[in-house]
């Protein structure tokens, strides 16, 4: 039992150390200014959303992602513009939109550079009317 506990603590320490080392290798690219776009509203009034998007990027690839930022921004705006009001206003819908944006950004980066270059796409702020 004691040997198992020691082995577990050693493995846990190695795992935590490895993840900390990997976390420092990443930087976050934020689109400036925030993205503001319309979505498909049910009522006669115009629906819009304002969001802050951050891309988790390996430090070495930051300048490449920055170079392709206009293309990536356009893709995110197009995806959000095609969403329904119900999806934009629900937490589950937002998560689906975030995943769809992440997949599209990775696909575009693969097409442009041959590699996905981003680890994760995050919506860090979301305001809708």
What can you see in these coordinates?
This protein has five helices and four strands. The chain has 129 residues and is α+β, with helices and mostly antiparallel strands. Helix 3 runs antiparallel to helix 5. The N and C termini lie far apart (57 Å). The N terminus is likely disordered.
Average pLDDT: 86
Give a quick account of the main beta sheet: strands, pairing sense, barrel closure.
4 strands, antiparallel
Query: What's the Cα radius of gyration?
Result: 19 Å
Can you tell me the residue ranges where pLDDT is under 50 for at least 5 consecutive residues? 1-12
What is the tally of helical segments? Answer: 5
How much strand? 25-35%
Please estimate the helix content: 40-55%
Class derived from helix and strand content: alpha+beta
Secondary structure: number of strands: 4
Question: Globular, elongated, flat, extended or rod-shaped: what is the shape?
Answer: elongated
Instruction: Write the element-wise H/E pattern from the N-terminal end onward.
Output: HEEEHHHHE
What is the terminal separation in angstroms? Answer: 57 Å
